[in-house]
Amino acid sequence: MRFRIERSGMFDTILVPTDDSAGADATIGHAIELGETYGSAVHALYVVEAGSAPTELPDDERTTVRDRSEARGREATIRVTDRAEERGLDAAREVREGVPYREVLSYTANHDVDLVVMGTHGRTGADRVRLGSTTERVLTRADVPVLSVRLPEDGEPTPAAAVSYDRIVVPTDGSDHAERAAETALDVAETYDAEVCAVYVVDSTTYDLEDAPRSIVGLLKEGGRNATEAIAEMAHDRGLDVRTDVRRGPPAEELLEYASTIDASLVAMGTRGQTVGSGPLLGSTTARIVRRSTVPVLTVS
């Protein structure tokens, strides 16, 4: 069963940094879905990268290159706002020139954006925003949640337009960062009546579990159970279905396998975390998951 709410206060304004690639439709689809659900305004931003016109060109040719880039930016942002307005959502668009991640962060701060929806990679070139490294820079610096959506590689089919969030993986390491990320994840889960899957990974790359005393391994697993049960209790308080799991192995690999095994539709986690018990689960692991996950990843600073 789906619940739609009006102006929940969590995602009132959603920003979609976009380029002119066909694969960006996957990102737009998620932004529109969330916009409809939360009654959000959807903003589209295209950044013409500073210095994208080769310096060896004459001034008039450089101006022509820049003008073409700006025209593509207008077309790309209009595609976003048209789709938003077709769904009855407020929409705004802007084309800027500068360093992509800095412009995204600046726009986010200046327009009180509550959520940024970005692709995990994108085409590169003289007139396109690099939506790969840009995304990672944004999610590590943004003060608001970032939803990273995997874009199709060249030659891959564009993902289906249908978007759902019915099973959400919430990795935890027991840290305050993880708990704050879980709060946001549970807000989304409650809105979509989704099942919550809390998981903790005992990092085998940090601990030699084969040689460690059984008491140490037991303590690590107990810490994992406590961490996941804390998330489960938060989920139960919201009336949500929840399952918990404690795994061991390289954190990114374990989490990606877990998400695939349970057919997750979203992974929600913090951008940093503690290094005890599960290793740097919510730091470097987050970047690996964002790069490799086939399902969207919601990161919370």
Kindly describe this structure.
With 301 residues, the chain is α/β, with parallel strands linked by helices. It has two domains: 13-149, HUPs (Rossmann fold); 167-300, Rossmann fold (3-Layer(aba) Sandwich), CATH 3.40.50.620. Helices cover 41% and strands 21% of the residues. It contains eight helices and ten strands. The protein has helices at 25-38, 59-86, 100-110, 133-141, 176-192, 214-237, 251-261, 284-292; strands at 13-17, 41-49, 91-98, 115-119, 146-149, 167-171, 195-203, 242-249, 266-270, 297-300. It has a ten-stranded mixed β-sheet with strand order 3-2-1-4-5-10-9-6-7-8, with helices on both faces. Strand 9, helix 8 (284-292) and strand 10 form a beta-alpha-beta unit. Helix 7 (251-261) packs across helix 8. The chain is elongated and about 70 Å long. The protein starts with 12 loop residues before the first strand and ends with a strand. Residues 1-8, 122-131 and 273-282 have low confidence and may be disordered.
Q: Look at the structure and give the CATH class of the largest domain.
A: Alpha Beta
Quote the average pLDDT: 83
Per DSSP E runs of 2 or more residues, the count of β-strands stands at 10
What would you call the shape? elongated
Query: In what range is the share of β-strand residues?
Result: 15-25%
* Sheet with most strands: 10 strands, mixed
- What would CATH call the architecture of the largest domain? 3-Layer(aba) Sandwich
Weakly predicted, low-confidence segments: 1-8, 122-131, 273-282
List the helices and strands and how they pair.
Layout: E1 13-17, H1 25-38, E2 41-49, H2 59-86, E3 91-98, H3 100-110, E4 115-119, H4 133-141, E5 146-149, E6 167-171, H5 176-192, E7 195-203, H6 214-237, E8 242-249, H7 251-261, E9 266-270, H8 284-292, E10 297-300
Parallel strand pairs: 1-2, 1-4, 2-3, 4-5, 6-7, 6-9, 7-8, 9-10
Antiparallel strand pairs: 5-10
Helix pairs in contact: 3-4, 7-8
